[in-house]
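Practice problem 4.
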């Protein structure tokens, strides 16, 4: 595709690809990234005067098309920045980092030091900002004083966590707010038979869901930073097939900081493990305080400030 002859929509697609929209498959991503470098060199001129619209969604394949923009920027002597969301530097970022002025890290990574590598945490969306716990429980029709456990597996849900939660608490136990994801929700909804078990496919008010909980059971992807911002103790079950085992590395960071208990999926005994934590309120309080201390609630502001400095 030549930028000289692109339509407005094609320009929007190219700009979106440069900023990290997911592609259909890894091979397609790699192929596009190789082809994109010469086009990326002309992208600023091609978009001049245009109003560009970008999607906020990104997948693991997006990094293959973000890299060419950094390479092109290096050739044009335009400062570029990278962002790493996990506790290790991914392949695309390792390849592109020599051409970047700044790399924003969510977690400290051994051997990567400032000023080039800056640990800023991970920006959290406005919908995840903490709110009043009493109002949050009313919103989800949860008991005001009894313990509440929030279970979620990311935006798409997590089948293993969904099944474990229902098996553990579907008929008895603490109050549960379970965000199951759209995929698994219909089948799970038929199996819930108590009022204190609030099963939802998702919520647009994730901050309230966190505020309502005494304990969070979750994977250890990007949303772990939202748990930290809310100051909620967590039982983290890393996805065992995550690339380079990055979810385990993410979870261990919060475990070392005292805010989380990490349970490998094969060792999951959810009812026992949750009840042990709920039986020790002082431990939960300390874990919540530790989680809060590990949070980076101003990550977006720090990144924006540094980007403006680079652009000046």
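Answer key:
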């Amino acid at each position: 595709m030549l930028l000289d002859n692109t339509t407005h929509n094609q320009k929007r697609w190219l700009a979106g690809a440069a900023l990290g929209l997911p592609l259909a498959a890894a091979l397609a991503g790699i192929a596009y990234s190789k082809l994109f470098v010469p086009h990326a060199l002309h992208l600023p001129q091609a978009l001049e005067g245009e109003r560009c619209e970008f999607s906020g969604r990104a997948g693991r394949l997006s990094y293959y098309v973000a890299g060419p923009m950094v390479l092109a920027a290096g050739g044009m002597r335009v400062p570029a920045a990278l962002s790493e969301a996990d506790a290790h530097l991914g392949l695309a970022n390792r390849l592109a980092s020599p051409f970047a002025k700044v790399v924003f890290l969510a977690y400290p990574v051994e051997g990567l030091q400032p000023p080039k590598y800056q640990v800023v945490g991970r920006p959290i969306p406005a919908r995840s900002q903490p709110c009043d716990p009493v109002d949050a429980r009313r919103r989800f029709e949860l008991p005001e004083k009894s313990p509440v456990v929030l279970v979620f597996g990311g935006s798409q849900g997590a089948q293993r966590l969904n099944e474990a939660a229902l098996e553990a608490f579907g008929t008895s136990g603490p109050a549960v707010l379970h965000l199951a994801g759209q995929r698994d929700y219909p089948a799970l909804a038929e199996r819930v038979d108590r009022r204190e078990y609030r099963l939802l496919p998702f919520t647009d008010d994730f901050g309230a869901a966190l505020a309502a909980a005494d304990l969070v059971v979750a994977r250890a992807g990007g949303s772990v930073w939202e748990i930290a911002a809310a100051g909620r103790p967590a039982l983290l079950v890393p996805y065992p097939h995550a690339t380079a085992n990055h979810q385990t590395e993410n979870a261990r960071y919060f475990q070392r900081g005292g805010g989380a208990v990490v349970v490998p999926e094969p060792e999951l005994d959810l009812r026992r493990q949750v009840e042990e934590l709920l039986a020790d309120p002082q431990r939960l309080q300390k874990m919540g305080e530790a989680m809060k201390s590990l949070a980076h609630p101003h990550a977006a502001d720090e990144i924006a400030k540094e980007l403006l400095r680079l652009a000046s």
